[in-house]
């Protein structure tokens, strides 16, 4: 197989990799904020339960969670959700990353000075307005470096979808490598991942600069 044909086949897999990446961010970022607020709840039962769920998601391998969500329903309830494997893959990724994003959100929220809340109260803002208009924009600026790190990690973690035979870039590269008895597909995959990460890092850097006016 020529290098050009190999890159074309892996580019097809890159589309599936991008689907995992963007759909995971679409669902995990807002879900992470919700989980963070539950984690910070004054209700000890809600806070404790949320903390336990976060510890499970962060303390067990993402690979195991992928397998459990893809194949677990069949073994437990007798029905399969793996016909379209993108769905369980995205569900597993979104839940896992929401747990990490939740702790990043929580750290940013708790880092905000109490004076911000007091000033908003004096200006007549409601608690909801205070959070979304004053606190959250500053939190996003504060947590951007940590968020960038997690997003870059997500690009590389998409390769774990090969464990449930989802045809993303690494899976296709692995198949080509096995059939051709060559290490070249892995090198090509590495280049694709590096370029993908470079683009993501550049975009996140632009976002961070756009938020500089919050300093």
Overall mean pLDDT score?
88
Outline the low-pLDDT stretches.
Answer: none
Give the terminus-to-terminus CA distance: 54 Å
Strand content: under 5%
Shape: flat
Number of beta-strand segments: 0
How many alpha or pi helices?
8
Output the helix-strand order: HHHHHHHH
Descriptive report:
This protein is mostly helical. Helix content is 80%, strand content 0%. The chain has eight helices and no strands. It has helices spanning 3-39, 44-59, 62-77, 86-110, 114-122, 127-157, 169-180, 184-210. Helix 3 (62-77) packs across helix 4 (86-110) and helix 6 runs antiparallel to helix 8 (184-210). The longest helix is centred in the first third of the chain and has 37 residues, at 3-39. The radius of gyration is 20 Å and the shape is flat. The mean pLDDT is 88.
Record the SSE blueprint.
Layout: H1 3-39, H2 44-59, H3 62-77, H4 86-110, H5 114-122, H6 127-157, H7 169-180, H8 184-210
Helix pairs in contact: 1-4, 1-7, 1-8, 2-4, 3-4, 4-6, 5-6, 6-8, 7-8
